[in-house]
Design a protein that fits this description.
Blueprint lengths: L22 H23 L4 H25 L4
């Protein structure tokens, strides 16, 4: 797939960006990005240093907790 990709003519270059309706949607999207990024780092770290992978995993779970606390605290504002 990588070698057949043509980033210069990729339809994603001209695709409409998803419009976020409100601040809540932006916050949700960015929490999910953070969680996924930490998951990727965790997976790659497993082949380099398992102890580091465990740290990324712990960070990911802290983000889950932070996300929950954030929405409980600011649910009326969003």
């Amino acid at each position: 797939m990588l070698f057949s990709r043509d980033s210069q003519t990729d339809s994603g270059r001209t695709a409409k960006e998803q419009i976020r309706q409100n601040l809540k949607n932006i916050v949700i999207a960015n929490f999910k990005r953070s969680e996924e990024a930490l998951r990727v780092l965790e997976e790659y770290s497993k082949i380099i240093d398992f102890k580091i992978a465990l740290k990324y995993k712990a960070l990911r779970y802290k983000i889950y907790t932070l996300e929950k606390k954030f929405f409980l605290k600011y649910k009326d504002l969003l």
